[in-house]
User: Fold this.
Amino acid sequence: MTGLFETTELNGMKIKNRFVRSATYEAMAELDGTVTDQLCGYMEELSRGEVGLIITGHSHVAREGQAGPRQMGIYSDEMIDGLKRITSVVHENGGVIAVQLAHAGQQGIGQDAYAAIGPSDVFKAGVKRASAMTADDIKRTVIAFGDAADRAVKSGFDGLQIHAAHGYLLSQFLSPHYNNRTDSYGGNLENRARLLLDVYKEIRQRVGKSFPIMVKINSEDFLENGITVEESIKVAHMLEDRGMDAIEMSGGTFESGKLIPSRVGTSTSEDREVYYRQTAETFKKEIDIPLILVGGFLSINVVEDVVASGLADYVALSRPLIREPNLIRRWAGGDRTKATCVSCNKCFSTLSRKEALHCNFEKK
Assistant:
């Protein structure tokens, strides 16, 4: 297993192995997004499980950007003390943690005065579900990401990740499936990528060159008129040219049918574990910055092959770590048994019942 369990550096951030906990909505925060003992305990468990880099669940940078109940927030300075609790417990266990900064866009839950906004108006059954963002909305959102980045540094996070995948706000702007604007934020790819680049520029100015910034993008949307592989690679070039430290590649949205980000039951054989292999191959031929690859990994020998072959620099896991937070420690200790996760997505059904995230496979 040479290579998987070696220490690497990402813009000065030391990562003790090639495994990343991909950002996953935990639903363990308070209703206002502040940190709880339960959320701290879960992050502690992941750090004890020897995950090289933990990325928190998507943390909303603005109230209208909240995607779900009990989602962790980073939109107020009042949250910093709670966020410090998370970073402290991870560091005490020798772990490294980054916070994912996110805005749900038109997927926002739209509660009370915080109506959902996005690149374009959205109507469902004749009712307006989200409003197209004005120029002032865009400026305010860019600043909100920058303010959240400041809080990330003050809270002791080792890095941060910008969420621009899965049909959330920045992904919506990138995708012509969602974005039908006719101003400088719509139309051609350069315009559709403008908000993501504005957000990155604002964050980089706030945190400086030596603070690790990553981004999560879709390989493609798997939607009619969605973003394509060719366009995603062009966006990756734009980010690389501006100094992005690493890119995590995912794919799909919650409207993508069987090709949603967390596919059901498709990883039963090893040759089907790497969802985005072809796009990763193209990426590595054209882009020099580190690639974090997520999507279907369950077997240690598949992970070894992906890293050893140079297909990806790091491998990210989500559902396997929900069922086995100690999976990486188990593999590092020599137990090469496949992850016990069966890709059934029952863990996410717990969220619809307003429960905290947990493996629900054995429950009837």
